[in-house]
Write a structure and sequence with these properties.
single chain; disordered C terminus; mainly alpha; 0% strand; 438 residues
């Protein structure tokens, strides 16, 4: 009973801190993936084929490499609030600039620079969350925040379809590119604090609850003297996590970028109809994200929960595309399951990653994982486009490739059971299932 009372004391950060981080990253994710709705207009106006469209979508992730490790490092040693707040304004300028490109070369340059501007925000927010949530809550905290991906897609799909219903791809980029200035930057600077001790809204009781939990985590962790950033690059667990993340991003972004086109093929609907149908998979993904993370926190078996979501996503993706336009309702149902699987890994994965390194270099480690792993966001859309070109527009070969990457990611994750999973006494798992935790 005392544990339940203490958790009730610590609930304000769930409703104050994470929703702001969600909104900021929703807009970030929107500005990187709305190109999926602009591909038709880009093909017509700039004369680019499917492989070039995939390259334009994927080159973002080459730029995304640049500030991942510095971003995580600065968030840990300097300020996540200041780093993210500055980069929000820079990426907004580049998102608007995308609407003014005149040729394929300019499109590649702006998309690359947009990746640079958004680089580092993900590991910086991961570090921020690790300062507010002890390990026993972290998978749920990460999953709650990572619902931004699903929510962003739910919003982006119908919003982008609606904008295209009365304008063109240029206005799509310009309108959505203004959101960082009018929404993301103001709420981030006004409402975010780096640590509980910096937040006036955090009560003494809640601050004590958080700091006691973090202190207990640190006391239970192995002692590492004189740990440097070199330890990040020499740690095999970090590189295995990076491989897992790379394979997942191939599957996820390969599906995400081409999803509007696949839905268009299945349903033959208008741009607005495609937008609303494309939102359906992400609604299911939000539910899967939360419950997979909740189960992972209870069991501590993060690797198993990643494998489960990957296997479900892989199988459902191939079934959906094979079903095709012959059975559109069934195809949409399975592609929704596929997207849920491709996203439900997030909470358990990053909870596992946060345990792989000493706390002083955890930000740099997560930056490395995100930096190199997100190269999969380049490979997935590009290879997906290439396979469509060589198979006369069919998405079946691409779906098999993306599904194989998802399944491989889950299998590699099993090698991290010793370093990434969190030991949970049996009595704690029973107690955890007897009451609801924020």
């Amino acid at each position: 009973m005392a544990g339940v009372v203490r958790e009730a004391v610590g609930r304000k950060r769930w409703t104050r801190l994470i929703p702001v981080a969600i909104i900021v990253y929703i807009i970030s994710f929107m500005d990187r993936t709305n190109i999926g709705f602009a591909l038709g207009g880009l093909q017509k106006d700039l004369g680019i084929d499917a492989a070039q469209q995939g390259l334009a979508a994927g080159i973002f992730f080459i730029g995304y490499l640049t500030l991942q490790i510095p971003g995580g490092h600065l968030a840990e040693r300097w300020s996540a609030k200041k780093f993210v707040g500055i980069m929000v304004l820079v990426w907004g300028l580049l998102a608007v600039a995308t609407g003014f490109v005149q040729n394929f070369g300019q499109l590649l340059v702006v998309r690359f620079l947009l990746g640079v501007a958004e680089a580092g925000i993900w590991p910086a927010i991961l570090v921020l969350i690790s300062h507010w949530f002890p390990a026993a809550e972290r998978a749920r905290a990460y999953a709650f925040w990572m619902m931004n991906i699903a929510i962003a897609s739910i919003i982006t799909a119908p919003l982008s379809g609606w904008i295209l219903s009365f304008s063109d791809w240029r206005w799509l980029f310009i309108i959505e590119g203004l959101f960082p200035f009018v929404i993301a930057a103001p709420i981030w600077w006004l409402l975010i604090s780096d640590r509980p001790r910096d937040a006036k809204w955090c009560s003494p009781e809640e601050r004590a609850f958080i700091e006691e939990g973090l202190a207990a985590d640190q006391a239970a962790a192995p002692v590492h003297e004189h740990v440097s950033i070199k330890h990040v690059f020499s740690n095999s667990a970090v590189w295995r996590l990076t491989l897992v993340y790379f394979l997942i991003q191939i599957g996820f972004y390969g599906l995400n970028i081409w999803l509007p086109k696949v839905v268009k093929t299945i349903t033959s609907g208008s741009a607005l109809e495609v937008g609303f149908v494309t939102a359906i998979p992400y609604v299911l993904a939000m539910v899967a994200l939360w419950y997979n993370a909740k189960g992972a926190d209870r069991s501590g078996r993060y690797s198993t929960h990643v494998l489960l979501s990957m296997a479900i996503g892989a199988v459902a993706l191939v079934i959906s595309v094979a079903t095709g336009s012959a059975m559109p309702i069934l195809a949409v149902a399975f592609i929704s399951i596929a997207m849920a699987g491709a996203l439900a890994y997030d909470g358990p994965f990053w909870a596992s990653a946060s345990r792989a390194m000493p706390v002083m270099v955890a930000g740099s480690a997560m930056g490395l994982i995100n930096a190199v792993g997100n190269l999969g966001g380049f490979v997935g859309p590009y290879v997906g486009g290439f396979l469509q070109d060589v198979t006369n527009g069919s998405f079946l070969a691409a779906s098999v490739f993306l599904a194989a990457c998802l399944l491989a990611a889950g299998l590699v994750m099993l090698t991290l059971r010793k370093t990434g999973d969190r030991p949970v006494p049996k009595e704690s798992r029973v107690a955890g299932s007897s009451h609801r935790i924020a």
